[in-house]
Input
Amino acid sequence: MVELRQSVFGVEFQSPVLLASGTCGYGREYAELIPLDEIGGLVTKAVSVEPRVGNPPHRIAETPGGMINAIGLENVGLRRFIGEKLPWLRENLRRAHVLVNVVGRSAEEYAAVVAGLDGEEGFLGYEINVSCPNVEGGTMFGTDESALAELVGRLRRETERPIIVKLTPNVPDIGIYARICEESGADGLSTINTFPGLLVDVDRRRPVIGNVSGGVSGPAILPMGVYLTWHAALSCSLPVIGIGGIRSGEDALQYILAGATLVQVGTALFVDPSAAKAVHEGIVAYLDRTGTGTIGELVGALEARGPVLA
Ligand SMILES: Cc1cc2nc3c(=O)[nH]c(=O)nc-3n(C[C@H](O)[C@H](O)[C@H](O)COP(=O)(O)O)c2cc1C
Output
């Protein structure tokens, strides 16, 4: 028997595999596709104070090795999330953990979402999205050191629940941002969000995506995600959730060996809705095959020499 349970953020995760924000709706949409309560958990679509309609079409397109999206953080807003989405999560997920992905245009807006949700039940904590490349100002807090410190510090005063900051890959040195989050009171990091990209329709000589640019995700970004996760994990002592291009147990293990405690599966769900289950089973098979007793032994076990390059 192998042991996949780990204690993270003050609770036990039965599996290191979670579903990534924006790729599994608010959970209910996925309940018929996989037994949701058997995975580690899920991260909801971003929640903002007011509902958002998102960007004009086209909003998603396939790219070599992945996809580009500019959904534009469309979401039902705080009030409807509490009234319509959270009750289902509360009633149906007993063992899988829920993180609520939070966005805002200002520190006040982020704080209002956290304050508005904090008294509710049905979720573990917050994933703070400071890294969305496809809305104006979406990476404002993720690319400005003092704004990030102020935001995380402000949210720390609003809640005792876990605060996990989702970082952007689009900075010269992710280690600086990882340390700022730690020093400002965050409990964990998620690395990474999508990379900014542009896909061109050469016949029309126009961008394929209505928003012009979008965020690139999927297998194409896996080595960058693993590198940035390694760099972030070495730069601070917070638990890191590895994200980017994960399709298999071996993909997830690259992140775990590089220092991730948990992982998230996103774009792969569009190809195979049961991908998270396959990732979980692939990790179990690896532990079996290598005679590894517990997943914890693998976290950060990468043997690598040399400096961390920015
Ligand atoms: C359609 C789509 C919507 C997304 N929406 C969000 C979002 O609302 N909040 C967020 O933090 N990340 C969002 N993401 C980013 C993913 O959670 C993830 O960080 C990224 O896609 C990289 O992982 P992947 O390669 O496994 O998809 C979205 C990604 C996609 C493809």
In short: Residues 20-23, 45-46, 60, 67, 69, 71, 73, 101, 129, 132, 166, 193-194, 217-218, 221, 243-246, 265-268 surround flavin mononucleotide (CB under 6 Å). The longest strand covers residues 97-102. Residues 77-92 form the longest helix (16 residues). The chain has a mean pLDDT of 96.
